[in-house]
């Protein structure tokens, strides 16, 4: 599957549809070239690996007591370091990120994830290396 965004629920956006078409076309072009016997050289790519889902701070009754901090809002895929603002309580208290390493949050404050108790997803940036790739003809 291909998920391209961000876009609000129930909204069809031309720019997002165009991005989805382009990535599907690139995938199909790769399959065609691979099937024609093209050799692809070794490569390295940076990707984001999911570490964990993070919930909103809640009280003993399970009610949300803090919202995403304004400095974190709309900062998907940007580095989040120890001490950076994470949440803002309804009383105005800043709750900072407390982590031993830099993470890259995504799906920050997505409406579709409130019911799943997910404020954002923590990811880590890693590098993947692939050896050359070529169709083996038997």
Automatic annotation (TrEMBL):
Domain of life: Eukaryota
Annotated GO CC locations: cytosol
Molecular function as annotated in GO: hydrolase activity, acting on carbon-nitrogen (but not peptide) bonds, in linear amides
AstE/AspA barrel-sandwich hybrid domain sequence ranges: 44-125
One matching Pfam family: AstE_AspA_hybrid
InterPro entries: AspA/AstE_fam (IPR050178), Aste_AspA_hybrid_dom (IPR007036)
Protein's UniProt name: ACY2 Aspartoacylase
